[in-house]
Amino acid sequence: MPSTSSVSPDASSQQHAAAASRKSSVTGSRKGSITSFFSTSKVSTYQSLDPEKFSSLMSYQAIDFEESIECFTEHTNKLKNLLECDACHLFLVDEKEHQLYTFLKLEGSDASTKIFKPMDRGLGSQVVDQVDGLIVDNVQLSPRWDSTVDELSHFTTSSYLAWPLRNPAGECFGVIEARNKTDKTAFSTSDTQVTQIFAQQLSSAIFRSKQNALLADRDDAFRKAYEKNFDESEAIVLREERRARLSGDASLKFAADELGVHKMSISDIQRWDYDVFSRSMEELEMLFIDVFQDRGLFGRFSIDIKTFMTFTKNIVAGYNADTPYHNHYHGFDVMHVSYLFISTCGADAFLEDFNVLSILVGALAHDVGHDGRNNSFHATTMSELAITYNSISILENFSAAYLFRTTKKADCDIFERMDGPEVKKLRGRLIEMILDTDAKNHFILMTRFKHGMEMKQLSRGLLSSMILHISDVSNPTRPNPISRKWSFAVQEEFFRQGDKEKELGLAISPFMDREYENLPRMQGAFIDAIVSPVFQLCAEFLPKIEKNCIKNMQVNRAFWNKLQNKQIMTTANVKKDIERSENKSVDGGGDAGDLPGVASMESSKSFQAPRNEQSAIPGIPQNAPKEASERSRKMSLIALKGSQAEALNESVAKMVETVSDSGPSIQNFLSFSKEDHVIMKEKMLKALDSNGVQLVMLIATAYALVADDLSLWVGDKDNDGALSITTFIVLILFAVELIISVYCVPDYMHFFFWLDLIAALSLIPEIGFLVGEDDFSSNTGANTLEEHGTLTRAGRAAKAGARAGRVARVLRLIRLVRIIKLVKWIGSYFKRKAKEISNQEIADEAEEVDMKMSNVGRRMTESITKKVILAVIFMLLTFSLFNDLPTPDARVWQLDDLQKLDGETRADFRDEYIKRYSVSSDENPTVLFELVGVNEKYKVEGKLQSLRTIEIEVIRSPSNESVYALFDISKESQNTAMHSFLMTLVVTSLLASLSMLFSRDAYNIMIKPIEKMKHTVQKLSENPFLHLEKLKKEDVDDENETDMLEAAITKMARLLQIGFGSAGAEIIANNLSDGGELNPMVPGSKIEAIFGFCDIRDFTFATEGLQQDVMLFVNKIADITHKHVVDSGGAPNKNIGDAFLLVWKLKGGGGELQKALYDSALLSFIKIIDDIKRMGNLAAFMDGADDTAAWRSSLQDFQVAMGFGLHTGWAIEGSIGSKVKVDASYLSPHVNLASRLEAATKQFKVPLLMSEDFVKGLTGNAQNNCRRVDSVTFKGSNEPMKIFHFDAKAYDEMKGKPDSDLSALLKECKWDENMAVAKGVDRAELENLFSSEKGVLIKQVYDRAFESYIDGDWEKAKILLCIWLEAFPQDKVGAVLLERLKDAGFTAPGDWQGYHALTEK
């Protein structure tokens, strides 16, 4: 069975069609020693793939490619080394000249020469024409052998191995050849495996290089080449936050569901496991109706249901029912999957109704007329279709033509109510989308889409084409049981074409030969080469595809891989295995691995088949590496069946290009721009201020404070080396922090810099290997004056160093003050954890910690801290000076007296001196261990070597420096170190407590309120709509001026928000963020928005009766109105007594249509209407009014009513007025149109009217309940506009008895059955529509009446309206329209153009 990387019938059979057209005799000429690797003829001895070759091959990086002798040689040398052969050549196909070409360096020439070979000569051309490779043991016996290359390179070929290079569509664009094994043996099957994998990797590199060349030039010419019919008005400009916006505002999601008054249950059709095979034709037709109804397309495009059904039946009739795959089930399935992508994957956010209509219609008709043969078959056989469409997208062109021939038939034109330009645009869009489903256009479409993603700009047309295309190839992304059914169907259709090709003597296309069936391999190749890449690409734009589709695709890929590993190849055996697994599952005897479709993959881009580690991979030795190289992806290699080898050819994945970038050098740092330095400073400062770094520096500071004292107190000399190393590390940390602070922290080179510098330098004396500390461990005694001096200086230096170290440690204490922020963070962290445990509401304490300190607060805090630091330093220095005052030492004078004596007296006094001072006591903690210069030398052996320098004290005779004594003062040093450690703790506590105590009251009383006020103003300037209640202080002390001021600022800010509203956001932001003069006259800005206008009916009458209580009435209505508007994402603007202007701002850019916001705006008005109606009479609105008010007798039962208008468009937002008085509002004719729509509600006797532009923005569910009321022009405009009403009531609620006015109207509108028949009105058909449970069918009666009204056939409109009102007498819209027709005598004016002017404002 031949192998290919694609199962697309159009693409995979191109090479066979080309072979047949060239009349090649390849398939019949496999004789003698010319052996196709996959033929049943004798092949070379089988050999397993060597593990070293396997590893080398997997690490092979075929990344970049260019047509040059150097590149050709680089790749062929790699294969030559792998195969251990004498020569390798790479040939590419020149399609224009119909030749193969390569580059050679001829003998005696340094330049490369391009060598051409005709396509009809040589064994290489044979490889081009077949799918598999070729092995020839002795080429000299082959009549097809061409020795041109041998002659030019002075080489003689004997054995020969070649493999074709193919693109992902399966088309051959080159050949890789190997000649003569070095050991003179024949090429083996192992060599063929290596060559196949190498060819696949090289093919990917060449194909990528060609794609990159296409993408290199990204100018307008490129976009014109790929963005066919690009419409700037349909541009989708992508933003970084696009994914976040796709999910929409959670508060608005409910609107679409709540607006579905007549909405059918869509839970059944919005399922990815919807199985069209289990549905009847009537159910599928109703599916198409339900989809159109759910998207609101019937009302939006005025599609008559009868015409729609006739159109659908005609399209279905165009499908060939005998075709296993491309039948009407496929059409309905693709249409349904397209609908799922729109409704469940987020595409709806970018698609207008026009796009949705084109996708759904195109999906149903995209394969109509398909005969089960692919384009290649038609082109090869020169069928009538191929001749008609010039072999260009043959079947797709036929389907598009069939679609528009259908719309030309009687009662089939579903586009008849659309205007001419819109129909023309729709036809072009449908043709383009259907042609894009041609398999040859797959990679071009992907390239266009990827280009749009990279350029952050797509078009709705391109997105529509992509949705239709991925729906067409979506079978592997469906649940496994459904996906299997489609796989069986496509396999049977392939076999039927293969049978026909065999009958005609043509080369059988890949996967179409019944004798070599391998269904798992076909499906695996289709997923890897086609489905997975395109779905992964689309998932980057529509992330929900990952959940809805890609996970199913991974399950299906694992399912087919499992069957492939089990060597289950045929459809029959696959079905048996599925039945066996299901039976085992029912019996409880099977495990999850046996059930179909339960396996999963980690990645669909590079599938790694799940297999038992103990089982060998067919064709690969067991000792081969289990894992691929880090720079490549795992691939399925070779599966063998008996003595016949078959190439699995399952998507050898692309090599991962690894680029290692070296870190920034000093030269790069110095060459940074000013902006680069600012960015680097911000990053370094952020790292320096991070809690982790602060914690490390806190530990380092604590170590520097106590380590030396602890070592002297409880340590010994042996630990001093480790202590010096650790101290050196701490010194490095302090130095790095100091350098970064100097570079990053503004105004650092002042007080704290010098403190940090001194604190860091004070560590140097504690590092023994840096200061060169004297080591007396090797001295046997101090016999010279130099040694005496050294000991003396060492002892003095040690004491001075100890005193200086204690003072320096005071400076290190200052570092602890710098880490208060970390302490605050730790405190707030534990507070939050405690509140989480107790399930209390967590206050935003982190905001207080992270709140940027004000300048006043920073200066005051620094001032207090500096004063505390200086006070503590002064105190410690003073104590240190008093402690170091000289005191008489008896040991010195006694030693001096001793050296002046002589004879026995001197000896006795010497012994007494040694006896007194050689033993430690409470009075004398020092111990004499060496006495020099008085008679015999006294010395305690080994004592000097065991002591530190600081633990040795030298006592010298004042009158004779050669007489001295060495004392062990280690006990005294330990006591001193203990006292120093305790002093450090005391000073630390003192410094921290003083700093906190001195600054706490100032911070709480003055600094914190100022910072909060500044924080409030800053946040308000950044976000004028900030919820100030979050910043409001709960406990306000009326006697505390700062609390009063803080509360006043919060109130004033809230008043600004309420007073200016949404339109005044820029006024607030600009004036609060600008330190200059007050300037309320902010320049206007253009916005897109939804405008709502509502008005209280009979307000003048109510005002006269209510008098001063009218404010209670108006404010109650305003409270209801504003609440629902704000909840829906809008903002109140003008309050003009009896009227209110409401605005919903649309987000600019991004391309999302924000349909949820439109739905929410409409829903808010419906809720306002319901609340007003529910409250009833005037008294319900007057809570708090005087019970004895005069109006209670006259207006008690006054019914409150309001009118509402909704429109969308642009407006200029800004301040209107002068510096004396301004109003923040909107100027636009669209604002006026919203007002005029509200005014028109009085004429049409409905509470709400909407413009056509607004209705277009609604979701399909909402549009389903919108009915056209009239087509009018408003005063001041000549542009006709259709106006709509929202049917908040179900149709059953419109039934009942007609009132007297309607009864009289119906009597005046006389008609009979003969008139109805003459006008084409079928009363029985209308009754059937009325009895339907689908609102869209019921509304068809009114829609037909309205269309007749627009068309000027007012007699027919009268009949239809009378029938409608007899069924639904409570419908005011129909009654008003019938009244208008009656006033005109049921005859349209002579100049009627489908609309009329509204004379009233």
UniProtKB/TrEMBL annotation:
Please note every region of biased composition (Low complexity). 1-25
Composition-biased stretches (Polar residues) = 601-615
- The answer to whether UniProt assigns keyword Cell membrane to this entry is no
Gene3D superfamilies noted in UniProt: 3'5'-cyclic nucleotide phosphodiesterase, catalytic domain, 3.30.450.40, Nucleotide cyclase, Voltage-gated potassium channels. Chain C
- Signal sequence segment: none
Q: Which residue intervals make up region (Disordered)? A: 1-32, 574-632
| Family matches, as SUPFAM superfamilies | GAF domain-like, HD-domain/PDEase-like, Nucleotide cyclase, Voltage-gated potassium channels
* Chain positions recorded as Zn(2+) 2 binding sites: D367
The topology of this chain with respect to the membrane is: Multi-pass membrane protein
Q: Name one Pfam family in it.
A: Ion_trans
Q: Which family does the entry's similarity section mention?
A: Belongs to the cyclic nucleotide phosphodiesterase family.
Q: What is this protein called?
A: Phosphodiesterase
Species, as recorded: Triparma columacea
Q: What lineage, starting at the top, does this entry show?
A: Eukaryota, Sar, Stramenopiles, Ochrophyta, Bolidophyceae
